[in-house]
C-alpha cells in the first residue's frame, strides 16, 4: 500500500513570485524542454523544470533552499525555446529577486528595493545627509559653489580665482571616508548574515558521488576555483553561448566582463587614493615625514591628467561604459514575449549608469571650471555610490557575493565540476 504525501501549497508565495517576475509560470505544461536545452544544467536532477513544478505548486521551502537558482546565468535559452512561453528563465530570476529581498537582515530594505516606490526613502538617506553637509559647508565657506587653493596640505576657500575642489566642499577626512567606512561595514554585515542564511539553507542539499574524486574539496579551494574560472574568465557566461546565439547574447558575456574589470580598476584607484592619504597621515603622525610626504603625494587629489592612477581611472571608466552599452543594448532588445526585464534589472542598470555618468560629468565640469554643474553632479554621484554600497546585499548586484558562494558550495558537494574538470 503506497504512502500518502500531503502537499500544502503556499498560495501567497506563488502570488509574490508572480509579482517579482514569475508571472508566466502557470503556462508551463512540463515538457522539460527547458532542462534539455540549458547549456549549464547538470545531467542529474536538472533545472529549471523541477523549479517550474515546485513554483506551480507553491512549494516555498523547496524553492528558497534550492541552490540551482544561483547556477543559472540567465542566458534565456530555455525561455527562447519554451513552446508555451512560460519563461522559465524569468522564474529563476524572480526566485533570485526574492532571495535578495529576504536573505540579508532588515527585510524592510529588501521590500523597499523591490519596487520603484521604495527608491525615494532609500535615496533620501544619503540625499538628506549630504544636503545637510553641503549647507553647513556653504555657511562656513560663504558660498554654495566655492573655489579653493591648496595651501599647506589643506583646501582654503578664496573669493577670486582658485579652482573647483570636491574635497574642499566635502572634506574627505570628515564627510567622505568616515561615512563610507560605516557604509562599507554595514554592507559587510548584511552579506555576512545573508551568506550565513544561504549556507544554512544549503545544508539539506544532496551530495553527488563523483567517480575518481578521492575526497571532498574544502570550501576555500572551491572558492578560489570559482574566482579563477567563473569570475575572472567568465566561463559560465561563455558556456551559455553556442552556434545559435545571436550577436547581442555573445556580447553580453564580454560586456559583463568589461564592466567587472572597469569596477576593479576603479576600486584600485580608490584604494590607492585612500591608502596614500591615510598612510601619509599615519607616517607623518609617527614622525616619518620624508616617507609620509611621498605616500601622501601618491594619494593627493585632484591628480594631474597624466598621473598613472588617473590614467587607470580613465581605463576603468572606458571599460565600464563599454560594458554598460553592451548590457543595456541587449536588455532593450529582448523579445518580451520570451524573456522579460524586471524592476531589479532596470534599477541596477540605471544606478550603474548614474555612477559612471556622474563620475565622468563631475570630472569634465571641474576641468571646464563650471562650478554650477560640477558640484550638483558630484552630489548626485555621492548619492548613487552610497546607494550601491549600502543596499548591495538587497539588490541584484548582490549576486556578486551570493552566486560566488553558491557556485563554490555546488563544487564542494559535487553538484557542478571544478573549473579545470569541465
TrEMBL record:
Every 4Fe-4S ferredoxin-type domain range: 61-86
Pfam families, A to Z: Fer4_8
Residue spans crossing the bilayer: 118-136, 179-199, 258-275, 311-327, 347-365, 372-394
SUPFAM superfamilies: alpha-helical ferredoxin, Respiratory nitrate reductase 1 gamma chain
Keywords for the protein's UniProt record, in alphabetical order: 4Fe-4S, Iron, Iron-sulfur, Membrane, Metal-binding, Oxidoreductase, Transmembrane, Transmembrane helix
PANTHER family, per the entry: IRON-SULFUR-BINDING OXIDOREDUCTASE FADF-RELATED, IRON-SULFUR-BINDING OXIDOREDUCTASE FADF-RELATED-RELATED
Protein name in UniProt: Heterodisulfide reductase subunit E
The organism of origin for this protein: Pseudodesulfovibrio sediminis
Lineage of the species this protein comes from: Bacteria, Pseudomonadati, Thermodesulfobacteriota, Desulfovibrionia, Desulfovibrionales
